[in-house]
Each structure stands twice: as structure tokens, then as C-alpha cells.
Amino acid sequence: xxxxxxxxxxxxxxxxxxxxxxxxxxxxxxxxxxxxxxxxxxxxxxxxxxxxxxxxxxxxxxxxxxxxxxxxxxxxxxxxxxxxxxxxxxxxxxxxxxxxxxxxxxxxxxxxxxxxxxxxxxxxxxxxxxxxxxxxxxxxxxxxxxxxxxxxxxxxxxxxxxxxxxxxxxxxxxxxxxxxxxxxxxxxxxxxxxxxxxxxxxxxxxxxxxxxxxxxxxxxxxxxxxxxxxxxxxxxxxxxxxxxxxxxxxxxxxxxxxxxxxxxxxxxxxxxxxx
Length: 275
Prior knowledge:
18% helix, 4 helices, alpha+beta, eight-stranded mixed beta sheet
């Protein structure tokens, strides 16, 4: 959710139990503006909060000129002092996947380890490789996975230029009430994984400038999204069952939309039993 509309946006997701104290809202409203100036971001969003056993990570996302490619993440414990997370690489993802992954502690220097047995050519030759990953790296990888798998935007909210740059569509006026009731009109704000997907004619006229992302209705397993209308039917709310804690909101007939994640940072592996 954009820092410029933080107060109103938090109220729209309050039905999920996602609340911030008055002190936290005030601190975020001030510090995110300073963050935007210091890092020279085009926009700064309050991305959410990862709940830890000893402390919680407040997450901010800074975006550059290309809204999809130019993303940086920062974390804070007090909503005032921010620390930049390292960029995620394939090797980092591999390291984190091999380390143990219980609840987050709330200490970026905490080290997770996992012993792996490596067998040589002879059966009796065994070496032990110890994987060590600090929580800061694990936090960066977790945010990357959540962003790739369940970040959501309404269809038409972003436009892709001929040179490939993704930016906010200034002419987007919001989905209609009927459009907001269909998953086909909501898309993942990440690089498409199904490049050869055929566009559904039921969604209207196809446009490569706005239909360059995967739609939520193609997600597997089916039923991993809960779509509801709240606030007296005036706000469309989407909740992910894959990453419980991710809530998307959109006010139909207005450009106001966004998402926030507040959860323990653990993927729901039992989603198949819930749909």
C-alpha cells in the first residue's frame, strides 16, 4: 500500500485483523517519506509485517522508474530506522531452501543451519556439509517468493511501454463492480510464467500493453484465492490461502488499490486440503 494513502488503506484491510497502532502509523507516515527522499525512490510502499518470535519485521518496498523491475526492500523494528535487504540471487534461494525454516526469530543475525550428507564414490566415504544462512538472507528470499507468487493488481492498473518498461497507468479509473467480482480481472504483479497463455474473450478486448501478466484464475490449485466484498459491499478484498496473511483491496470505480502481507512468513503447505 502506498505510503501516501497509508491511513485509509489500513482501514480497508482491517477485516483481516491487520491493524497498526496509532504510534506505528504516525511513525511510518513520517519515516517512509524520508526514506523516499534519501533513496531517491519514485514511490515507497508499506509492504507489510513478518511476525517473529522475539520481534517483528516491518517491511517497506521502494520502487524506481520501472515499477516491476526496480524494487528494493527494507526492514525496520521500530518503523523509524530502516535497513536495506540484500538483492536475491539464485544461489541465495538455493542456500535458504536447504536450511531449516521454522518460525522467524526476529533477529537478522540469527543463523539457521542444516547438515547434509554427501556420499563419495565409495560407500564408506561420507562428508558432512553444513549449510548456514542468516535470517536477513532468509527474510529477503521469503519476501521475494511472496511477491512473485501472490502480489496482485487489477487489470489495467499498469501499462507496459514498447521498450518493456512497466509503469502506473494514469488513465486507470478502476474496475466496475461486475468486473471486480471475477478473478480474471486480477493479475500477478510479476513476470509472467505462462507466456503462451491465450487471453479469454470473456474479459474483453485483449491489449498487449495491459495484459502482459498472469491472471489469478489460472493459479494452481484452483480456489487458492478468497474474493469478498466488504465495507458494506464497497471494497473488493482478495485473500491468499497459499500465503496466509496476504490481503489485496480495491475500491471499484476508483484507482485505489493495493496489498499488504502480515503473517509469519511461512507458506501454507496444506492449501490443497483447504480448497
